[in-house]
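re: ur question from earlier - yeah i can do the single chain one, its not a big deal. heres the input i used so u can compare w yours
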Amino acid sequence: MKKLVTMLLALVLVLSTMLGCLPASAEGEYKDTIVWVIGNDQDTLDPQMNVNNSKVIPQYYDGLLGFDTENNVVCKIAESYESSEDKMVWTFHLRDDVYFHSGRHCTAYDFEATFDRLLDTENPVRYTERFSYIESAVATDDYTFVITLAEPKAFFLQSIAEQATAVLNPEYIEKYGSDLGETAESVDGCGPFKCTGWTRGEEMRFERFDDYYGDVAKTREIVMMIVPEQTSRAIAIETGQADIADGISPDDAVRLDALDGITVSKTDGNGCHLFQFNCASDNAPMADPNVRLAISYAIDKETICEYLYSGLEEGPMPSIMAPSVAGYYEAGVVPYDVEKAKELLAEAGYPDGFDMTIMTTAVYNRGVEMGEILVEMLGEVGINVTLEVVERAVFSSAWGGFTPEEFNENFGWDMFIMGSGGNADSDTLLYRIMHTDDTNINNYGFYSNAEVDELLEKGAVTMDEAERDACYQRIAEITLFEDPFGVYINLRKNVYALSDNIEGFAVNPSNTMALTQIVCRAD
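and the output i got, formated as tokens:
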């Protein structure tokens, strides 16, 4: 307790010192700097490698297209576009008033260099495989960029709107190589904010880019303070040391929302928590679909959501994708049925259960508590669980493209907590995590189902919407009720505690904020 109090006092002192150095606006109406406390830092500021979330990268970088606050695809650097009749060739017409933060004028040739890097199979980045449907991406003049597909792509525009396709400065690609995005100095985008400082694990600074081609940000600077402890973030917003608090606990959400001067925003997101199966485990019988289905029946998702997430208004995940995702199908929640779970275990040859390990982490809100509840619930059907709680560094290190043998040797978890979401359509959400792969670069649990593979491949190229939706409906049925991919728990909300002085706050289902519109009244 003494250590916690000391830590909280230190946080308040740091924030107070920082805020004391930040002047109000010249008019005195709005603050020049907004302070945002968040739980997790970014792993990298390289758009082609970042896997954390979509909160930061879209502030520093822009691409041809992007998403608005309703998750609709909108033009960004591309002023307009058209396609060939067969939808295999897409021509983008670029604006002529776009500049990188360094002052370099952005042209179609910068996009060509960006896509050359993204599509280079000899030196792949994290998302190279996801964009393998592209045959070529070339500039035909300064403001015309043509993408030719190797195969049809039903949701091509949504795919191109992802942050992985944001334009990079070719000079920075050459200068920094694989270290691009590792420091503030190596970040040079065309987004509404410049990265003027990044101390890993401590803070990140966003400074308004006055030469931005779009709506110039209304606030001069936004400071993101990395504060891992939920209690500390709640105290920061409650004491006025922060203007926005991210990732607050359910209990704090209820408490803060009842206070004068603070509003807790809870909007529909497209992410969820789940416990994913290691289908290639050599420790427990996770390769058996009946065993995985038994585990799913043995877990009471309704009770978990009521007990852990009611304060955030989060309920059970009704499918494998959120309602805001194109291709959504409400397959339903796998019901809590202890007898059914025991019956399935007996059919699989484990009437007395077995031993297994589950990994969880505090990286996810209430992740440790969820793991502890799973231990109790699975114990009711005879499954003896060893719970392993890991720090962020261990969690992040597990998803490095390991083979099943390497993963089991280094980690050995039979189930593990995971977040899923952040995508606008079912193809980009599901293909990379469910399609059979030799490593866990994205298919972390080595899931493999021939029918699912076939449906994913068909859904990616089918242009008929009804036929495409049928693919994802069937995938949901298989991966929930026949050959489970994981145990889906709660459909997450985008939750922020805001000072009542904040105006213009908006966040889309993918949890990207429109920071250009945010202002904070000065007291």
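The longest strand covers residues 262-277. not sure if urs matches, ping me
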